[in-house]
Write a structure and sequence with these properties.
The chain is mainly alpha-helical and 596 residues long. Among the domains are: 53 residues, no CATH class; 67 residues. The chain has a 3-stranded parallel sheet. Helix 1 links the parallel strand 1 and strand 2. The radius of gyration is 57 Å and the shape is elongated. 3% of the residues are buried. Directly interacts with tubulin-gamma; this interaction determines centrosomal localization.
Length: 596
């Protein structure tokens, strides 16, 4: 064992020896606490210097300090090693947990693959159902085409009959004109005979003559009415045939609900069907109207239906017409007749547009192919029979709505699954955007890709030692004892570095310097700029006050404080007297007053 002896001299030798012994005893206790042998002090009275080591006062203090520092550094290193061992154990536990989670995620991914396969099978079943319904719709449309051809043939026959009836009406009008002419001549001859034999003025307005004239007028009026009715029927048929080919109509703003539109469209189709049947029945029965004499009031017929003859219509006929019209429109108050008719006309104008909307919906339901759309457009003129094409739309749309709700649930489940994984998926979906199958497919693909990448991460276990060395280096660099203390210090360093970089970049941009300029050049530039600004400020103050002495500057400021309030009050009164708003106009105004 090595011994150390100190050489001391002076008056405080005993005191220093005691102090040195106390210091060395403290150091020996520290050495013994860590398992080292103590350092023995030699007796100062010994004369054998071969077995001892002589140290000076300063050397002894330095040795004690070095030994204490080494022991503390050893303690710190031991604590660091313990922390590293604990961190290593925690990393191992985390690795085992991540491996177990990865296995669970793989199992869930396989389950999701089975679910996706089931969904694909259901989609195929739906496609087959849609194809079957499409074939049914095609058969129905072919049947409607045949019905359309039959109706066109019947329409041609009716037009031919109508033409024959028009010719008959013309012949009857000619015959009626001849009959009226002969009747007038007969009446004239009769009056002349009465005047000749009875020597009196003929009574042109006798009851008998008036009765004959009334009967003739009624017969002519009924013939005109029949001709006008036939012309009106032909015009309506032509307008109806032209309107079938149109595709663009204005839809009232008041109709906003789809179910309401469908209901109004069905009502209009039923009403149109009833009116068409009535018109066809009237055209079919026109051949029986030639023998009428216009005197049967029980059948509800009147002389003229023209607007210019309304003033000459009988009150009973007008009342009967209004009553039938109110009954047909189903209103109880005559004041509501015009609004009801106007509303019916709007609905009638909206029905073709509604039919086009339903055709578009039907084309979308039928897979939306080009051929199907053209097929539907070519059959858009079927009229009333088209209602049979839309019977299955409601059930199909309801099924699609259920599928959309199921898509939302599936999307929610996939989002939860993606959040359970160790990866972080970037959510690019818009909350206001509707969920579609492509979004679900994208999420499933991302999960599968992350699972495949997870299998390639097993090589990280081999790089554990370099990671531990990096962690130890950062702990020494930031002077922290645990792994959790590295992240705050690193964030603090990066934030400070970012702030300094931003400040340096801003200063370089303000001063117009290049980005490659070093920091000390920038500091020198700022120092020169500040000194020049201070010199310019002092120079401007001196130039403004006209003096370079501090006392003179203070006196100038005091004089300004005494003079300015009085000058300001004087100028305000002067501006008020001269009735001006700016000091620039004071001198011109005073000169103008002086010239006056």
């Amino acid at each position: 064992m090595t011994s150390i002896c100190h050489l001391l001299s002076g008056e405080d030798e005993d005191y220093f020896v005691q102090h040195e012994q106390v210091e060395w005893e403290i150091l020996n206790k520290l050495l013994q606490h860590h398992g080292f042998n103590p350092i023995h002090l030699a007796d100062p009275q010994t004369k054998d210097l071969t077995a001892v080591v002589l140290l000076g006062k300063q050397s002894g203090i330095e040795i004690r300090h070095v030994v204490a520092t080494l022991i503390k550094d050893t303690e710190r290193r031991q604590a660091l090693i313990r922390d590293l061992i604990q961190s290593n154990n925690e990393l191992k536990n985390d690795l085992r947990q991540q491996q177990s989670k990865a296995s669970r995620y793989e199992q869930r991914a396989s389950d999701l693959e089975h679910i996706v396969e089931d969904v694909k099978g259901k989609i195929q079943d739906l496609e087959s159902d849609f194809l079957a319904k499409d074939s049914q719709q095609k058969n129905l449309i072919e049947q409607l085409e045949r019905e359309k051809q039959d109706s066109q043939v019947h329409h041609q026959q009716l037009k031919q009959k109508l033409h024959e009836q028009e010719e008959t009406i013309l012949r009857l009008q000619k015959k009626l004109y001849m009959v009226v002419t002969e009747e007038e001549q007969r009446i004239e001859r009769r009056n002349k005979i009465f005047h000749k034999f009875h020597k009196r003025v003929p009574k042109t307005h006798s009851a008998f003559d008036q009765q004959l004239l009334d009967e003739t007028q009624n017969h002519r009026t009924q013939q005109d009415w029949r001709k006008d009715e036939v012309d009106e029927t032909v015009r309506k048929r032509r307008e109806h045939s032209r309107n079938k080919g149109k595709n663009k109509y204005s839809v009232p703003d008041t109709i906003s609900n789809r179910k309401t539109l469908v209901k109004v469209y069905e009502d209009y189709l039923q009403e149109s069907r009833a009116k068409n049947e009535k018109i066809f029945q009237k055209q079919w029965n026109y051949k029986f109207l030639g023998n009428g004499d216009g005197k049967d009031e029980k059948e509800g017929k009147w002389d003229s239906m023209k607007i210019e003859d309304i003033d000459y219509m009988q009150g009973s006929d007008c009342k009967r017409f209004l009553k039938n019209l109110c009954k047909e429109i189903q209103i109880q108050d005559v004041n509501n007749l015009i609004p009801a008719v106007r509303e019916r006309s709007k609905l009638a104008a909206a029905c073709p547009k509604l039919q086009k909307i339903l055709n578009d919906i039907n084309s979308v339901v039928s897979n939306g192919t080009k051929s199907q759309k053209l097929f539907l457009q070519s059959h858009a003129e079927l009229g009333v029979g088209n209602i049979l094409m839309y019977e299955n739309l409601v059930s199909t749309v309801e099924k699609w709505a259920e599928q959309l709700m199921a898509l939302k649930d599936l999307h929610r489940s996939l989002k939860k699954l993606s959040k359970l994984g160790p990866w972080k998926l970037v959510d690019l979906s818009d909350p206001s955007h509707e969920i579609c199958v492509q979004d679900l497919q994208l999420i499933v693909d991302e999960i599968l890709n992350n699972l495949m990448n997870k299998k390639n991460m097993t090589g990280l276990q081999e790089s554990k030692q370099p990671l531990e060395a990096i962690v130890s280096h950062f702990q020494k660099l930031f002077d922290v004892t645990s792994l959790s203390g590295v992240y705050p210090r690193m964030n603090e360093v990066y934030s400070k570095l970012g702030e300094i970089s931003n400040v340096m970049r801003s200063l370089k941009q303000l001063l117009g310097l290049d980005d490659s300029i070093s920091p000390h050049v920038l500091v020198n530039k700022i120092e020169k700029l500040c000194s020049s600004i201070n010199e310019d400020a002092c120079r401007q103050v001196q130039h403004l006050l006209g003096t370079q002495d501090i006392d003179s500057i203070i006196n100038k400021l005091k004089e300004h404080e005494e003079f300015f309030p009085a000058f300001y009050a004087l100028m305000q009164e002067l501006l008020q007297i001269l009735e001006i708003d700016s000091l620039d106009y004071v001198l011109p105004t005073v000169r103008a007053l002086k010239l006056q």
